[in-house]
Amino acid sequence: MSALALAALAVARGELAKGVRGGRPGWGRFRGLEVDAYQRGVGLALAPDPKVEGHPWCAAAVYACFEQACSHVDILSDGATDTPNPCPRTAGALHMWDTSPLTARTQLPEPGAVFVLDRGKGKGHVGFVASVSPDGLTITTAEPDTNAAGSTTGDAWGEHLWAPADGARGRLVGYLVF
Description:
- The chain has one domain (3-176).
- It has 4 helices and 6 strands.
- The chain has 178 residues and is of the alpha+beta class.
- Helices cover 25% and strands 22% of the residues.
- Strands 1-6-2-3-4-5 form a 6-stranded antiparallel sheet.
């Protein structure tokens, strides 16, 4: 397991615990203080009026979690205060997979890995693997831009237990371990 991936997962769990979400009263769908920050962090332009709809934000939030984790001293063996963020700076889930180093790609889930789903027609979804069942068939995830039903555009952080092989949430492309 990667110390950086586990640190990014800890950041994600913190966002989940804080109840970070978009679409609150007075904000458009895919908008909110934290959600806007995620989106700006990957270079997306947003309308000045917060009531105007933003963009799906799962990949932007995953990038932000790694960005924050990279600044934690405790994940570095050399005592430095920064490490480069290996997670691609992108708002696209499938683009994250496509631009990740081949060495980061795997088909085996582990805590801290980023799962990548293909939803068809160029749409995808990403989030963090929090745990894996002993048989490896189900995973628990901490994921942005979801809801209680497991939507991939639900506008909140959520935790889900699911079986990637069943394809119910999309085709599993694989996992990224940074």
